[in-house]
Amino acid sequence: MGIKKGTKLTDNPKDKILRIRIDDKTEYELETVCQHTKMSKSEVVRKGIEKQYAEIKK
Length: 58
Fold this sequence. Notes:
single chain; mainly alpha; extended
């Protein structure tokens, strides 16, 4: 099985899946952030994790 045509090659593949449960308020806030920043839900979550990680490493 080879690489499909059009597959984006990356140095940092995102092959892990995270599934979470959120309430309506959190979903609304996430959707609002995504629309405002033009980022995907995954990108917003990754940025949030990076920010929290930077805080604990200080």
